[in-house]
Structures are given as structure tokens and as C-alpha cells.
Please model this.
Amino acid sequence: MPNSYFKFKQFTVNQELATMKVGTDGVLLGAWAPVGDNVRQILDIGTGTGIIALMLAQRSVAQIDAVDIDEASVQQADENFKRSPWSNRLAVHKSDFQAYGKACSAKYDLVVSNPPYFSRSLKSPELARTLVRHTDMLPHNQLLEGVASVLSPHGCFCAVFPYTEGNVFVALAATFGLFCNRRLNVYSVPGKPVIRVLLQFSFTRGLVEEHDMYIHTKEGAYTDAYRALTKDFYLAF
Model:
């Protein structure tokens, strides 16, 4: 059973209420998404515990909105935001993203999401987990339509997927005018297949900056690359 909280260097994520607990996917995305000086407004779609939004708050000076359809997750994220050092820059909204995107007048410099990606796999008997893990409530075409409407002209959208789903998403995103500019292929250990892809999109078509990263060495230790990416967050690093 997962711990009821996860402690990072500058904040703690309580997760007893949230449907989806803190995991490597969210930590990778929160550490990898770009937060340059031009990033002033950020949107986190499907925030869950709020982990990605909290990491981006630590890394930037941006105002951050987070949205989630799950009542318990919204309550959990709100508590985590209020207990963090950046409570004045974090806000969570209970809404499905389709409605939020249509009502939103803001334009975001960075949009991030650890989105649902299972569409035909065996579903969890627990409804809440099904909603956050499967695309039924937020099909990828609707996610991309909403992102395209709330993203600033020079902004970027970052998300994390399993390998196959990520490749399909890249092709679909192009039909909405969002083009993959940056990609990180994540491996558990050398010699194994890609387990996740981190993808960055913008309205500008160009060459894709692509890199590989291994989480563990063959001996089981964390790699220098993974440590470098996450060292500002994990207590062990």
C-alpha cells in the first residue's frame, strides 16, 4: 500500500485522498518541462496530487492553474498547494478539461499533462482510477483541441506517455497544429525497451531534439542523468 505522503526537498505531497499516487511519470515531467523566464502562466491538466504543479512552482516564478475532474484529487491538491511555499501562485479548479478550456480566457506559456492513455485495455473496477487512467473522459483529440485553444502562440505543451501511445499522439497532435519539437525516450535499464516518452509540442514545425535517458544502470544504481534531472527534488539525491 502506498505511503500517505511523499516528501521532497522543498515540499511534501500528501496522497491519501488522491486516486493516482505520486509516480515516476509525474516526477519526470515536472523536472523536464521547460520553465524559462518567458514562462509566466502554467496550466496542469489532470493534476491529481498536484505533484507536477508543485515541481514547476519550485522551478519557476509562474502563476500555475491546475484542473482535475476528480473531487478527492482536487481536495488533495488544494491541501498540498496551501501547505507549500508557493501557495500564492497555485490554484486548483474542479472541472473536466473540455469545459475548462472552453470557458478559459487565459493563454498559457506552458501546458503540462500526465494524461490518461489507456483506450482498450482492461479497466479497473474502481471508477475513479478508470477515469484518470483511460481516455474515455478525455479523448486525446479533445485534449489536443483544448490545449490548442489555451496555449499562447509561443508557448509549449508537454506530456508523458508509454512508447506506442506517444508515437500515435505525436501524429494526432500535428492535425491540431501542434508539432513535436523535443523528445526524451526513457528506459528503465540499458538493453530494455523504452518505457516512457516525454514529448514537447509547439505551434512551430521543425527538427525534433531527441535524447535517451536510462533510470538505472545494469547494476541497479540510479544513472547520473536521472540523478541530474531529479536532484532538486528527491531527498536521496
